[in-house]
C-alpha cells in the first residue's frame, strides 16, 4: 500500500507538468486577447472570487498585460475551480480566434487530473458541442455560397480573368467618443473630419474595444471609392480562412432590404433573406443567439435605405420570435438589443453620417479609393501579361489629370477599359476623354464595340442600338425617381435583358424572398452608372421638357439632415447633366436623339442654371460641387463667370478634399481671370491634392488649418508654393509643424518674390525654428508680417528670439504677449516723431529703422533684467511695452538704471509690474535724466503713474507734467 500511495503523486505530477506546459504556451496569446477589455475580465474574475480583493493582486502599472497576467496567475494557483469557470466563460462569451479557442476548449474538456479538470461534459456542454458542430456545417455552407458569388480575379489563375479585380482601397480611421452610454451629451456627437488619422487595414477594423458589447464599424466613402467591393472582399477573405475569430458571416444589401414590406423575425432575416441552413436550422439559430460574439453582420449601402433609423430605448429580454420592421431589426442589432456582442459593419456615403447616431459606433473609417501606388497596382493587375501594360502605366503617370481620376476605383476600371481599347485601335492622346461624363460615354461605346467581331464606327453603333439605349436610360430614370436600384423582369424586357446584360451594362442577381424563394433582379453595374443613364435620358428624350430638366438640376449637399435621413440615390446626376452639356458630347447626343435643336436648348438650360447658382452664396461643399459641374462642362466662359461672382475668395471648411475636387477647383481658378484666396479649414486632404494646387499662378493667398498638417505636408507643399509668383499670404496653422517642415518651407518662402505675410501659429515650433524664420526678413524685401503665435515658448526662449529679432534691421515691430502666446513680427516703413538723439542718429545713418516692442505678460522677473537690458541697448525704439511682468522693485530699479543706454523715442509702458510706492518714487526720480523718452506709464500693487516729459529749451533740459 505504501508503494501505491507513492505512485499516485508521481502520475499526477507528470500530468500536471504536461497541462502546465500547454497553459504556458497559450497564456501569452490569451493575455493579448483579453487586453481588448480588461474591465470585463476584472468584473468576471471578481464575481468568481467575491471573497478576494483583486486590487491586492493587480500590480500598479500602466501595462494592461501585466495586470491581466497577474489576475490569471492568481486564479490558476489559488482558485483552480474559479480558473476553470473563467476559461469556460471566455470560451462561451468571447469571439476567440480559432488557434486560441481550440486549446482552451481542450483544456476544459479533456484529462482526468484535478488541474486538467473533469473530462465528463455536462449535458449543457454536450449540447454546446453539438451546436458547434451544426454551426460548422452551416459555416461551410455559407463559405461555399460566398466563394461562388464573390469571386475575385487572380492574375495567377487564367480561368478567373473575367472576375472583378481587387486592390484594397486607401482607408483612413477616425477617432470616436469612447463612451457608448446612451446619454444626450454623447448622442449629439458627430464625426468631425479633423479627427481623421492614419491609414488602417481591414484587419485593424476588427480590433474590439469590448469583449461583450456589440462592435459597430461604420465605413463611409464617396460614390465609387470601393465600399461595396471592400465588404465583398471581407466576406471572400473570411470564406477563404481569414478573420477566424468570426464563426458565421451574414451580408445584407439595403437595396434588397428595401423590397421587404412586411415585418419579420431575426431568424427570417438571417435565414430567409441570406441563406437557409441545409440541416438543423433550429440548432444553428440557437448557436447564433448563444454565441453572438462570433457573428459578423454586414449592412451595405445605408444611403440607399428607404427606412428610418429609430434609436428607441432597447427592450430587455427581447422575444426572438417577435416580428418587427427592417428598420427596427437594424436598430436592435446596432444597439445590442439583439445579438449583443456581435460585430456589425455598416457602409454609407459621408452625407449620411450626421443623420446617423454615432454614440454606439466603435470604429469609423473612411474609404478613400486609390492613391498613386494603388492605381499602378490596379493597372499592373488589369494588364497582366498584356504588352500594353508598360505603355499604359507610363501614360497615366505622365497625365496627372488622368491619374487623379483613377483615384476613384470605379472610374479607374473604366479608364483601363478605355485605354486598352483606344491603344489597340488608335492613338489615345487624340481621343482620350477629359471628364468623368465623357468616360462614361466612351465606356458605353466600347462595351458595345467589344462584343463586335470587327471595328464599328460610333455612329453606326448608336444607330443600331438607339432604341435599346433609350429604353435602358428610361429604366434608370424611373429607378431614381422611385428610389430604387433593383429592377425585375416586368421592367426589363427580354431584348433589353439581352442587350444590357451581354454588354456589361446591367448585372443579374438573385433577390431573396421568404420560404427560401428567389426572384431574378437587375441593377446597373454601379449606382453612378444608373445616374449617368438617367441624365442621358433627360437630355435626349423628347418627353422631357426644358422646364422639367431644370427641376431635376440641383446641387447636392455633402450632408443629409437628421430630418431627411432616408436614402436618395441622386448624388451625381447634376454632375452628369453638366458633363452632357459640354460641346464635346454634342455629336453623340445629336446621333442618339436625332434632334439637334432640342439638344442645344437643353444644354443651354443647364449652363444657365449653373450661372444662376454661381450668383448665389454657396457653402464650401456646394461650392466644390459647382466646381465639379463647371469642370464637367469644360466651358471656360462659365468658369470665368463663376470666378467673377465668388468675390475671389474660396472658403472650404470641415470636409475632405480629394484630388478630383482640387482638379475641379483649379479649373475654375485658372479661368476665373482674377487672383484668388483659398482657405482650407479643417479639410483633410491627401498630399496629391497639393500637386494639383501647384498648377495655378492665380493664387494670392493660401490658408491651411488642420491638426494633421505636419512635416510631410509641409515638405509636399514647399515645391508647390515655390512656383507661385503672385502668392502674397500663406497660413499653415493649427498643425504639427516641427523643424523638418519649417526647414523645407523656409527655402520655398525665399522663392516667393511677392510674399508679404507668413502665419505659422499654433504648431510645434521651437525657438531655433522661429529664429530661422525671423532671418527671412533680411532676405525677402516684400515680407511684412510673420505670425508665430501659440508655439513652444518659455522665458529663455523669448529672450533668445528677441535678441535675434532686434538685430534684424528689417523688423520694425515685435509683439510677444505671454499669456495669450502671441508672437508677431512685422516690417513697415513707419514715420515716427524722433527724439533729438534719434534725429541725430538718423542724420548719421539713413538705414536705421525705428522699432516698436511689446513684451507683455511674459513672466520676466528681476533675474532676466540684465539680459533684457543688454538686448535693448543699441536698437532704436519708438515704443517699448513691458507691462504684466513681475519685475518687483528690484527688477524695476535694474531696468530704470539701464534706461540711459536705451534709445526709446516715444513711450515706455511698465504697468502691472508689482511696483510698490517706493518703486514709483524711484521712477519719478530716475526718468528725468532719460533724455530720449517722452512718456512713461507705470503701475504697481496699488499705485499708478503716468509721466509726460517736455523739452524746455534747446539744451535738452526736461520737465515733468
TrEMBL record:
It holds the Pfam family NACHT. GO terms for molecular function: ATP binding. GO terms for biological process: positive regulation of MHC class I biosynthetic process; positive regulation of MHC class II biosynthetic process; positive regulation of transcription by RNA polymerase II. It comes from the Eukaryota. Keywords: ATP-binding, Leucine-rich repeat, Nucleotide-binding, Repeat. The keyword Ligase does not apply. Residues 215-350 form the NACHT domain. Coiled coil: none annotated. PROSITE patterns: NACHT. This is NACHT domain-containing protein.
